[in-house]
Design brief:
6% helix, 4-stranded antiparallel β-sheet, 2 helices, 181 residues, 5-stranded antiparallel β-sheet, 12 strands, mainly beta
Length: 181
């Protein structure tokens, strides 16, 4: 992975603890980068830049069982969707399930029900998830909206030359609701 140095046009290298493809990299408020998941990687780790413009590992890879639980035969949990919530925790969506995760304490704060229908939304099924803008002048009520994806067997069908339609459904989840649906 390459990280752009703000002071130059160079992209210094990152010395990674683990080799992984198809993971998610997200910049945290403190400037570190959290790397979540990847092919056969059920963990996360942090990276930060140093004064020489290169980056290094600040922690070893940390097990995140949620990623193992969301893996299926087609690995529909690659490139998990991650959003920073106003309270500093992360919203993580993988395959058809989601959690609020406290990365500072390495614990899942809340787990939500799987999406209706159970169709996977992450790569290779490739849906989209957004956290719409939050109005700072209103009570903080973060919501996520999830659209698209594919049927659970779509990846295997493509290998046989059969292309199925993308999922035409969207869902919205208000993360702060007592019993979100």
């Amino acid at each position: 992975m390459k990280i752009k140095d703000k002071k130059s046009s160079a992209f210094p290298s990152v010395n990674r603890q683990r080799k992984s493809r198809r993971n998610l990299q997200f910049i945290l408020p403190d400037g570190r980068i959290i790397i979540v998941g990847g092919r056969a990687q059920f963990n996360y780790e942090f990276y930060h830049g140093n004064s020489q413009g290169s980056s290094s590992s600040s922690h070893k890879a940390v097990w995140l069982n949620f990623l193992r639980e969301t893996r299926d035969d087609d690995e529909n949990n690659l490139y998990p969707f991650v959003h920073l919530l106003p309270n500093g925790n992360l919203f993580i969506f993988a395959n058809s399930r989601s959690v609020v995760f406290d990365y500072k304490q390495n614990r899942i704060i809340r787990e939500f029900l799987a999406i209706n229908g159970g169709d996977p939304r992450n790569y290779p099924s490739s849906g989209s998830l957004v956290l719409p803008p939050i109005d700072e002048n209103r009570p903080l009520e973060p919501k996520v909206m999830l659209c698209g994806g594919a049927s659970r067997n779509a990846f295997q069908l493509v290998k046989k030359g059969t292309f199925s339609r993308a999922a035409s459904t969207c869902g919205c989840l208000k993360i702060t609701d007592e019993q979100p649906t």
